[in-house]
Structure formats: structure tokens, C-alpha cells
Amino acid sequence: MVVETTRIPSDALQSFTSDVLVGFGVKREHADQVAEVLVASDVQGIDSHGVPRLKMYTDRLRDGLVNLDPKMTVITETAATLALDADNGMGHPASIEAMNRCIAKAKETGLCMTTVRNSNHFGIAGYYAAMALEHGLCGVAMTNATPLVVPTGAKRAYLSTAPIAAAIPAGKEKPILLDAATSTVAWGKIEIAQRENKPIPAGWAVDADGNITTDPNQAVALTPLGGARETSGQKGFGLGLWIEMLCGQLASGPWGAHVKGSRDEVPGPTRTGHAFMAWRIDAFTSEDDFKAGIDRMIQEIKSLETVDGVDRVMIPGEPEYEAEADRRANGIPVHPVVVEQIRMIGREVGVEAPF
Amino acid sequence: MVVETTRIPSDALQSFTSDVLVGFGVKREHADQVAEVLVASDVQGIDSHGVPRLKMYTDRLRDGLVNLDPKMTVITETAATLALDADNGMGHPASIEAMNRCIAKAKETGLCMTTVRNSNHFGIAGYYAAMALEHGLCGVAMTNATPLVVPTGAKRAYLSTAPIAAAIPAGKEKPILLDAATSTVAWGKIEIAQRENKPIPAGWAVDADGNITTDPNQAVALTPLGGARETSGQKGFGLGLWIEMLCGQLASGPWGAHVKGSRDEVPGPTRTGHAFMAWRIDAFTSEDDFKAGIDRMIQEIKSLETVDGVDRVMIPGEPEYEAEADRRANGIPVHPVVVEQIRMIGREVGVEAPF
Fold first, then answer.
1. Contact (CB<8Å) A290/B249
2. Thinking of the domain A186-222, which architecture would CATH place it in?
3. How far is CA A101 from CA A112, B68, B106, B313, in A?
4. Distance of CA A184 to CAs A177, A189, B176, Å?
5. Is A182 within 8 Å of A234 (Cβ atoms)?
6. How does pLDDT run across B64-86, given as a tens digit for each residue?
7. Any A CB within 8 A of B133 CB
């Protein structure tokens, strides 16, 4: 059965999302920031992290699990490091503020790493990494979340998908923007397969016994990047552990297994942690040479001969730039199930969808 | 045919390796450092990066491609950043010096990132990351090298295996030590399969047409971590690009495709680049809490129920600690082909192997 997908203008989707969040008690400034990050995700074609997640956020707001008037505080600070406490506010405004502070310190010192504890789900990591680009800096963003990834050889999830995003300024070319979970895929891709009722490739996920499954409805956990041990799944596991450490123990908070989420029997603040980095290119080298080198690398990779059946080699960020060009012009395709779901959420707080 | 493998005491292997390097004109202090890193690799069971690589190093020394009397210089420096030029010296002494300087600055400032250009192959990245542990710091080490990894969708190699190593201090448990190429496997694993004449798993490597091969002798390039696009090889490609940038453009030097190696028709200095990081835990959080959290994470992961056919879940670094306990006590198993090869290299400079 072919399902008709609605195209919604990004502006309409963004203002609706902000209005709904305000309806749930979020301050307008914060609601605008959350809506901006969510719709940026949809615009870039990362459907797994956009407005389809609105239900997850409003469920937690309805249950009073998020602080609507958070005061971000500094735990400790040096010239190049900053540890923040987000006071259980929404993850997106907390992360925008943390990355802005990280950028300001990096501009001053050359390099900064910033951790955040007591935060919540922050959407796409790439949004925050890319903030560094506006200042000519390199940026990195990482987060933990609820456990979804099986350590290589284990039956059950222990780590979160522990994504890392990295933004690299270019000269004439568009910046390189990597945004990758350290699981084989993001959980959102399983949810999309569930919504579309399609099988998933072997190697993405495991069932309740820890065995690989192709049925998205049987999937309970993800494999680390690399998949099985034979194909080096333990590397994805190790990278995930490293990111969990930065966003967990180093941030003075819990890591994957102990981050709360919607699956927990006793609900509570998620206590999500993030880590951000930014550095000035001219703290290391000539900015012009750096950018010319990045341009050359991009151009050389794009001109590589492709294997049979592949049109061209894509640079990290390129699929997102192409989706953005299409979706800013033609609207964001949203699955009818999601459209109906967010309309209902809006009605709950008296906000009528303009679509 | 079963091949008899010789066990060589690590001390004997290390002093022999140092003597051979001195025979090729390397200063004793540097030769000791190279030998220490190579034998550390063998001791930890990372056979792909130990003395079997001695031929690669001595070939370059014989051809006069490495500076025997390098003077490391500072390109630029801030409180938290340091960019060094290794003056085409051997990679191991250059990296030990760079990591020591990175550690010293991190102790002062809280965090430091250090790049190195005009260096050479440095062996195992994990050695340098682990140096931070002796000072109670977290450490990271990365390098580029000659191109060996195909960007997702391309026919030929463009990136190096761009490894990243990360060391995380623990309390009562042993430190977590991740050392992972961003390719599915290290090229050394293909070489081992070639030496042992065994097929390789599908997904590790591609042949001259860019197609997956299981014949190690047909393999000319590696896949990025994740393998094919369906299993997210583009993530390993993206992580590799990021590491190439740090060790290449940011370090004021070339990246994978332009790093020279033994495969080049016109030989020259490799112009290898590295990047190192170190940070003080107490710049972010309480050291005691951090270490207790790492211990708890290790203990919880090790106590997870395993999937059928797997004895236990291994923490990154654990296989290396176990190999080390065995090999320090019982000697390092070295393949007879390698034993004969390094004996011959020794004889070339008048150094007789004591094994």
C-alpha cells in the first residue's frame, strides 16, 4: 500500500512545534530553540530525530519530568574546560547555551571542552557541532541517552547509541558535517521501519535473546558500529564507551545504562549528559591553508571513480545539504501517522495545526 | 601444515630491535624508544604492529628517507594547543615527545590538543594514549598513514586507516584502553592472513575493482568501519575523514591520499601527521567519583549475560592485558618467517639475534 505523505512548509512546522511546546509550559525562548533543532533535523532529511519525536518530549513535559524554569550552573571551570549543570531543563536550549559558552572559551583560549550534566534529549548532535562553523571554528558534539546498544558479546543493551557529530570548515566547498551514532544505525531507523512495516537489514538490531533480527517489531536493541565481532563490532562498542565516559562520568552524571527514559518503570528526570568541543584553526595552522586543504580533499574524494551501481561518492553532510535544498523549497514530507499524532498533541493544549 | 612458532623473551626482542636500529644509524635513545613501542605491541598481542614491521622501518632507514638527527620545533602554541614539526624523525620518539608535551600542558591548563607534522609511522596509537594514564589523565592518540581505505562507494583507497586510541583511568579496575583503526580491520590483519595463507572474512577488504574479496592476496584496500553502506560504512568513512583532518590539514601537513609510503614509485619522506589529546579529570569532576564510575561501568559490563557461544564480554584493553601477562612470562610468539626476516636484517648491520 502506498501511503500519501504530506509536505509541510518548514516555517509552519516550526512555529506549530514551538506553540505546542509553549502550550506544555515551556518558555517561548526555549520552545523556539527546541522547534528550531527539531525542524532542522527534518529539513536535513534526518526524519528519525525531527517532529516525529515531539510525542517523546511532550510525554515527559506532561508528566512533569522536565524543569520548565532551569538555571544552568557552572560546576567547575578552567581556561580550556567547562563543566555545566543544566538543572533538568530541556536538552536543546541547554545544549545551545553550552555550545555557545564552549565556542566563546575556544575563541579566547584556542580550544575548549565542555560537559553538561542533568540535561535531557537534545535532538541531532550535528546541530550543535555546526554552531562552531558560524565562528570559523571546528566543532564536536556528543551525548548519551537511554541504553540501546549491546556490548559485543552481551545479550542486552547497556550503552546508548552515543552519537558524535563533527563540523569541519571548508573554503569554497560546503563544510564537512559528520553526525554518526556509534551504533550501526540510530534507533529512529528501527522506528521508521516499524511505522512503514518493512524488514530491517541483518546486523542492525538484536531481539530479546541477543540474536540478530530482521523484524523491526522484534528488535529490542542495536549492535555497535561494525556489527558482529568478526566485522569489528567491538570498535563501535569501544568508541561508544569513550563517548559515554565523556558525557557520563566526566560530566559528573550517569552513563547509558543509568540514563532514564520512556522505557523505565519508575519515571524520573533522564539525567542525560553531553560533551562539546570547539577549537580555533589558527591555534594550530594557517586558516587559509587549512580550508584549501579541506576543499582539495572534498574535491578529490568526489572525483574518485565509483564502484558499479553507485553514482557518486558522498561527503559527510552532503545528503543533508541536498535534502535541505529540496525541503526548504518544497516542504518537509511527514508521514500521515506522524501528522495525525502531532495534530492530536497540539489539540491537547489548544494549538490547531495549520496543516 | 602446522608452523612451529618461536617464543622469544620480550627483553631479548627489545634489545635486539634497538641494536638493529642503532646499526642503521638511529641514536640509541631513539632506537630504545622505537624498540619499546614495537615490543609493547607484540607483548599486547597486536602482532600486526610489532617487530614484523621492523623491515618497513629499516627499508626506509636504508634508503635515507628518515632524518637520523631530527630537531623537533614548535609551529605555534597557545595555553591549550600545540602544533609541532617532527623534522622527519622516526615517528615513535617524535610521538613520545609530543605526548609528553601534551600531558605537561594539560596538567597546567586542564586540556591540551597537540598536532605533529613531518613525522613517520608511529606504531600502535594506544602506546601514546596510555602515557596519559601514568599522570592520572585521559589520553587520546591519532595518526594518518598511507591511503588504504576506500571512501564508501569509491573504487580505490583514499584515506588511511586513521586509527584512534583512547585511554581512560579506572580506580580498582584496569584502565580502559581503546585502540581502533577506523577501517573494518588494520592492514596488518591482511598481512597476517597473507603470511598464514588463510582467507579473510567478507567485508574486510576490496580487490582492484573495488569489489569485496576473501582472498588476502587479492586485497588492495580496506573498507571503512561498518563495511558496506547498508551497514553504515559511511560512518567509519566519516570518522576517518575527521581523524585525517586533525592529523593532516590541522597539523599543517598532508592527509591519507598524500602521505607517502613503501608503495610509492618515487620514494620520499612520508610526511605523516599525528594528533594527541590529554585532559585532567579534576578539570571537570571529582577524580574519585570519576574512577568509581568507570569501575562500576566495567564491572557491570563484565557481568552482563552473554549470547550463546560467547564466554564473556571483553572491555577494550582486556585482550591486550591478558596477552601481556602471558607473553611477559612465556615470551612472544613470533612467526618463523618473521624470525628469519629480522635475523637477516640484523646481520646486514652486524647484529646477531640472540634467538
1. yes
2. 2-Layer Sandwich (3.30)
3. 9, 45, 20, 39
4. 18, 10, 22
5. no
6. 999 999 999 999 999 999 999 99
7. no
Q: Which of A255, A259, A307 best probes binding to B when mutated, by most B CB atoms within 10 angstroms? A: A307
* Contacting residues for B113 by C-beta, under 8 A, at least 6 apart: A111, A279, A284, B80, B81, B82, B102, B275, B276, B277
Are B227 and A225 a contacting pair at CB < 8 A?
no
Element (H or E) spanning A246, and its range? helix A233-247
Residue A237 CB neighbours (<10 A) = 33
Provide the β-strand partners of residue B143: B274
All structural domains of chain B with their residue ranges? 1-64+318-355, 72-184+232-303, 189-222
User: Hey, what CATH class is B72-184+232-303 in?
Assistant: alpha beta
ipTM value, please give it: 0.96
Alpha helix ranges (H) inside A44-168: 54-62, 91-109, 125-131
CATH architecture, range A1-64+317-355: Orthogonal Bundle (1.10)
Query: Residue B276 is placed in which grid cell?
Result: 594527541
Lowest mean pLDDT among A170-184, A328-342, B160-174, B186-200: B186-200
Q: What is the C-alpha to C-alpha distance for residues B46 and B40, in angstroms, rounded to an integer?
A: 9
Residue A152 near chain B (CB below 8 Å): yes
Average pLDDT over residues A129-155: 97
CA distance A13 to chain B (A): 29
| CB < 8 Å to B283, chain A | 76, 78, 80-81, 83
Among partner residues B181, B231, B313, which is closest to A153 by beta-carbon distance? Answer: B313
A283 with B78: Cβ contact below 8 A: yes
Question: Phi and psi (nearest 5°) for A8?
Answer: -115, 130
- Give the Cα separation of B346 and A85 in Å (integer): 59
Question: Could you tell me if B6 and B334 are in contact, meaning their C-beta atoms sit under 8 angstroms apart?
Answer: yes
- In chain A, where do the E strands start and end? 6-8, 73-77, 81-85, 111-119, 137-143, 164-168, 176-180, 205-206, 212-213, 221-222, 272-280, 332-334
The pTM for the full model equals: 0.96
CATH for B189-222, among 3.30.60.50, 1.10.10.60, 3.40.50.2300, 1.10.12.10? Answer: 3.30.60.50
| Residue B110 touches partner A, C-beta closer than 8 Å | yes
Across the interface, of A81, A209, A279, the residue whose CB is closest to B110 is A81
pLDDT at B1 over 70: no
How many angstroms separate the CA atoms of A292 and B115, rounded? 18
Q: Provide CATH code, domain B1-64+318-355.
A: 1.10.1530.10
Among all residues of chain A, which has the CA nearest to that of B115?
A284
Contacts of B201 in chain A (CB under 8 A): 230-231
